[in-house]
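Q: My labmate handed me this sequence with no annotations at all. I'd like to see what the chain might look like in three dimensions before we decide whether it's worth expressing. Could you predict it?
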Amino acid sequence: MEVHDGAELCFPQLLNTSCRKPLTSWTDAVFLCFLLSTISVLTVALNLLVIVSISHFRQTPQTHQPPPLSLSVSDSIIGLVFMPGEILRKTSCWYLGNFMCSLYMYFTILTISASVGNTVLISIDRHVAICDPLHYPTRVTVRRARVCILLCWLCSIFYSSLFVKDDPDKGTYCFGKCIFQTDYILGTIDVFVTFIIPVTVIIILYLRVFVVALSQARAITAVTLQHSVTVTSRKSELKAARTLGILIAVFLMCFCPFYCLSIAGQKILRTSYGILVLCLICFNSCLNPLIYALFYPWFRRAVKIIVTLQILQPGSRETNIL
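A: Here is what I predict for the chain of 322 residues:
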């Protein structure tokens, strides 16, 4: 390793083993900090609103409880851990040591894989609700949903541990940087496990949901007024299917660029394009609660009660938000 001027090094006392300071300009660093900090704060705040809305109010729709709650938890952790860590990695030297770097990598992969898994679970939930509504109450119970979510998190915990290395590559390693180092095999596995397979399952499920929802929409127009309760129920399910479609479309737009660059090579992810696609993944975690706010009136009512601090009043759990 070459010897550099001490002023350019993260650790001047370690001339031969220290990394260089990032060459990011002052304006680029300020812009990146502002962008990621804003997304981070919005992501945590909006997902906390979803978490409180679902966990506090008793009259939250059952179909909007376990999977979306778990998705909001993983998204809020992404905003709390991943984005501040990226600010440190991209704008300054990494002074937190190897252990914190490994821990940061672990939580990043854990929360992103859990977010993907929760999106798949939501797709399965909506598929059963739309395609097999008569058996939905017996097949998709709160207990089964919680078991599936627990398995999703356990699999994510195990999966993320595969990417954490105790000993970095001594040939390319230097003190002052936290780099996501994966070999070709793990990189290929990651593309399939967290992108190709989940996206294939999600698209197949939603195509079936779309076909069934379209046929149900046509059937609704032929139903008489005496079946208004059934019509209202079916319209609610169709609206949930439409919301799922938007959620999936946003998920694909935010994750596709990252994995396309990942397939092209790990070095590309370290360029300015890599920073942009990482910001897109962060932005996906911020958009999910906004989709809820736009398409679910009960969530907007719950947010109004939370923001106006009416949630602190006795008996607020029983408030009718439906």
